[in-house]
Amino acid sequence: MRSPQPLRNGGDNSCSPSHPPRFHSTVAEHKLRRFNSLILVFRLTSFSFSLASSVFMLTNTRGSDSPHWYHYDTFRFVLAANAIVAVYSMFEMGASVWEISRGATLFPEVLQIWFDFGHDQVFAYLLLSASAAGTSMARTLREMDTCTASNVFCVQSDIAIALGYAAFLFLGFTSLLTGFRVVCFIIKGSRFHL
Amino acid sequence: MRSPQPLRNGGDNSCSPSHPPRFHSTVAEHKLRRFNSLILVFRLTSFSFSLASSVFMLTNTRGSDSPHWYHYDTFRFVLAANAIVAVYSMFEMGASVWEISRGATLFPEVLQIWFDFGHDQVFAYLLLSASAAGTSMARTLREMDTCTASNVFCVQSDIAIALGYAAFLFLGFTSLLTGFRVVCFIIKGSRFHL
């Protein structure tokens, strides 16, 4: 399903409403491609961090005498949130690659714009709350005997949570860019006013 | 310090860029007042919840044999986040009342618009992460002996955290409205295109 609205091209890449689209420009097209590539890079980084966080948490179990991540609700929440963000980022990377290569959005443009921004916001909140909850749990474990008995478990949990924060950071940056696209769409009826 | 830009008035309250300001309309002015009043109501609700949460957490201490909120880092974080949001909401309520009564923003318009939206976003993230961390800690306490020894302490902590979530919800609603004002400002150079 492609966007019903074709790309519009003009003189610059700002989303000022005062300049209507004028003529096809390779410079403008290059700028749009660069903007979309930046989104792709942020998504890739966010995907990498959230996937790494999920893997770190998932493999945080060694032997029957050591604590396991699935014994703690909070760590299950951290894993779930990071896994969700990893899957979402992978899907969005596909959508970005489609957009860069074909010059059209995967869903109809208006849907794509709001879908991206809405999900970026919601998942950023989800990831931050999971990481904050994880931090609280990790600190609590340090005050108990768990970490003296199995320090590796605590260190690996800390790393997983830190990776979750990094994923949140890049998801937040992406959210700013997709927010900018929403504003451009409201102004000009096009996701990016070239 | 008043806004250097006077209010502009037109036919409707949408922020479509296609209709330039036309004439002064009492209906349009009434609509702007209603929009600002809605923001004020949300801020008041957010303030009430965050203040109540702070008070509930602050008074969660009874006798020397019972646990105290300040023994737990997470509960200190919950209290601090709610107190910050309460103070911020109180300040913003003052700014809203000023705007409704005088028809001009407290700071220069562009600063006020971005200040409101930026702080709403940041404090919403702060409050959610504090509440999520608090939830994690409250669940941990229930699994330990703390809650069997002093159930009232745990119940009161739960209430404080729940009030924090409510404050976050209304701060989120306010953030949507101030986000709408930012979009209107970008489009028309006025915080609300009447």
TrEMBL record, chains A, B:
Keywords: Cell membrane, Membrane, Transmembrane, Transmembrane helix. Residues 1-20 are annotated as: Disordered. The keyword Transmembrane helix applies. It is a multi-pass membrane protein. It is found in: Cell membrane. It comes from the Eukaryota. Residues 35-170 form the Casparian strip membrane protein domain. The chain crosses the membrane at residues 40-59, 79-101, 122-141, 161-187. One of its GO terms (cellular component) is plasma membrane. InterPro entries: CASP_dom. Belongs to the Casparian strip membrane proteins (CASP) family. Homodimer and heterodimers. This is CASP-like protein.
